[in-house]
Write a structure and sequence with these properties.
By secondary structure, the chain is an alpha/beta fold. Helices cover 51% and strands 12% of the residues. The relative contact order is 0.10. It catalyses: Hydrolysis of terminal non-reducing N-acetyl-D-hexosamine residues in N-acetyl-beta-D-hexosaminides.
């Protein structure tokens, strides 16, 4: 299977955009979706506090699944069950469930209410995904595990370590999933398993309940880096394995455009691992997740927007579907996306583009390439402004009209052009995203520069 990851913990798209996107994903070679809802799921009852103000409705969740089914995309919901649960533990009601009191990252697995809460969350998500054969329980990056007082006491009493705590909690979560009436197979990220011995893994019994998803996002990694992990997982009793690559969201928390060559090389590395798998370990390969992170965590800024990541996703999906990136693969990507050419090293695509969100792709490129540069050029290189309209002059409303007229029309024209452009950009973003995401993206990427120009124009007038 080739699952495209939809990370909804930031800039979750409107369902109307997904309706346009799913046929494209199918056409490019995807046959499934890993949907990480986080606070976008319509939790009910006591869990309603977890919902974003713009969370999908129950009808939206049903519609997403219908659209996926229509385009032969299997939906795999992802629920974080140990780490990366800031969206839960930030709430005062659940602060007592933190592993370390001052950090909202990870659950205290010893608090009885932790598993009670998780069962309630999992039950609601699974109940709304009865068509799904799989569920992903997250479980990556459980920061500060073993540092809480309850964990220290447990390790002292049981002569244990953080690995033993991890396995005990995960086994309880997996047993609950396995006991549900809809018969789901479980997946989990593998990074926390890497530090645990094969003997401990085998003894825990989790291998009968879950398949590890081995993630590695570096552009050029060697088969030898993955081989020992796969051997260990086979020795631990796992029968099958998944891999996870990345098409965006792994090259910097504030990245605005995915580096195409970087992500292509990551997928070419995974193809080499796949080819070598039979000699590395007796594991059944079940699928690969193309991750597209939208935030590094609940508190970080947005990284590359989904429409901006579509060219990278298209290259990566087609590379996996065709076993490499040939001229023919490149031509298919260009034809499907409506581009004339693409430059991998420069991460640029030439042509109008005919894919959902192409306007946003181009407009973000404009912001990225020209906004900051054009504003700073006026503020820092225009000698008349530096000489006769400095912050000192502006603060005291003191200036010679003769000198001010020499730059005024130029500044007003630049301001008018950018305000017009930004108005259109906001309209395009509004079609794809909810107001909170639009506001956040504008504040992070546009306002720091445009506000300087706005202030200059205000003082000039």
């Amino acid at each position: 299977m080739r699952l495209v990851h939809l990370d909804l913990k930031g800039a979750a798209p409107r369902v109307s955009y997904l309706e346009q996107l799913f046929p494209l994903l199918s056409q490019l070679g995807a046959n499934g979706l890993l949907i990480e809802y986080e606070d976008m799921f319509p939790y009910k009852g006591d869990l309603e506090i977890l919902r974003s103000p713009y969370a999908y409705s129950e009808e939206d969740i049903e519609r997403i699944q219908q659209l996926a089914e229509l385009h032969k995309l299997e939906v795999v919901p992802l629920v974080q069950t140990f780490g990366h649960v800031e969206f839960i533990l930030k709430h005062e009601r659940y602060q007592h469930l933190r592993e370390v009191e001052r950090f909202p990252n990870s659950f205290n697995p010893h608090a009885p209410d932790t598993v009670v809460l998780l069962k309630s969350i999992l039950a609601q998500v699974m109940e709304k995904h009865r068509r799904s054969s799989w569920i992903h329980i997250g479980a990556d990056e459980v920061f500060h595990l073993g540092e809480g007082l309850d964990s220290k006491n447990w390790m002292s009493r049981n002569k244990g370590d953080p690995g033993a705590i991890f396995l005990k909690h995960i086994k309880e979560v997996l047993s609950f999933v396995a006991g549900q009436p809809w018969g789901r197979r479980a997946l989990m990220w593998d990074d926390m398993l890497r530090k645990i011995s094969a003997g401990a893994l085998r003894g825990s019994g989790i291998a009968e309940l879950v398949s590890p998803v081995v993630w590695f996002y570096a552009p050029d990694f060697e088969v030898e880096q993955i081989g020992p992990l796969l051997t260990k997982y086979a020795e631990s009793g796992f029968g099958a394995v998944w891999f996870a690559s990345a098409f965006k969201g792994t090259t910097g928390p504030a990245q605005s455009r995915p580096p195409l060559s970087h992500h292509l090389r990551n997928h070419l590395s995974w193809l080499r691992v796949l080819e070598a798998l039979p000699r590395l370990a007796p594991l059944r390969f079940q699928g690969i997740v193309l991750t597209g992170w939208q935030r590094y965590d609940h508190y970080s800024v947005l990284c590359e927007l989904l429409p901006v990541g579509i060219p990278s996703l298209a290259i990566c999906l087609q590379t996996l579907a065709n076993g490499g990136f040939t001229e023919e693969t490149k031509r298919k990507v260009l034809d499907t996306l409506g581009f004339q050419s693409l430059q991998l090293e420069q991460s640029t695509c030439e042509g109008r583009g005919g894919f959902p969100g192409a306007e946003i792709y181009h407009m973000v490129e404009q912001v990225r390439g020209h906004l900051k540069e054009s504003v700073l050029k006026v503020l820092e290189e225009e000698s008349a402004i530096k000489g006769w309209f400095s912050p000192y002059h502006r603060k005291r409303q003191f200036g010679n009209p003769r000198n001010m007229e020499s730059f005024g029309s130029k500044v007003l024209k630049l301001h008018e052009e950018w305000e017009s452009f930004v108005g259109e950009l906001r309209a395009q973003l509004d079609r794809v995203y909810f107001p909170d995401a639009v506001e956040e993206w504008m504040e992070e990427n546009v306002n720091p520069y445009l506000d300087q120009l706005r202030d200059l124009v205000r003082d000039y007038r």
